[in-house]
């Protein structure tokens, strides 16, 4: 029973993921079309009622992957540095003095 539940939830996850990617691509294409037609600085209201423009939305969508890449790079660098430190000095236990 649990294998069947897993496969159906996995299929739903795949369908929702594809739908989300298609919606994002559709929005980016719409925003690029608005910018190319000269309406890039016109305001629109988001679903939350925030006033936003198409150029700002594209800049935001570009900044998100850049921030993720920076975070992953920093995480890799820190884990590599920690691994090198442990290889060089070993795991030392602090001795309690009583």
List keywords for this structure.
6% strand; mainly alpha; 2 helices; 2 strands; 98 residues; two-stranded antiparallel sheet
What coarse outline follows from CA principal-axis ratios?
elongated
Number of helices: 2
pLDDT average, as an integer? Answer: 88
Number of strands: 2
Distance between the termini: 57 Å
Share of helix, binned:
over 70%
Low-confidence stretches: none
* Structural Rg: 24 Å
Number of domains: 1
Instruction: Tell me the series of helices and strands, N- to C-terminal.
Output: HEEH
**Which structural category fits the helices and strands?**
mainly alpha
How many strands, what sense, and barrel or not for the largest sheet? 2 strands, antiparallel
């Amino acid at each position: 029973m649990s294998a069947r539940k897993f496969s159906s939830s996995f299929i739903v996850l795949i369908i929702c993921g594809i739908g989300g990617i298609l919606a994002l691509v559709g929005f980016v294409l719409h925003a690029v079309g608005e910018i190319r037609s000269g309406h890039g600085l016109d305001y629109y209201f988001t679903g939350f009622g925030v006033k936003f423009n198409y150029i700002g939305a594209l800049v935001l969508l570009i900044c998100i992957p850049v921030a993720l890449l920076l975070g992953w790079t920093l995480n890799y660098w820190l884990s590599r540095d920690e691994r090198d430190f442990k290889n060089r000095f070993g795991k030392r236990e602090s001795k309690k003095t009583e």
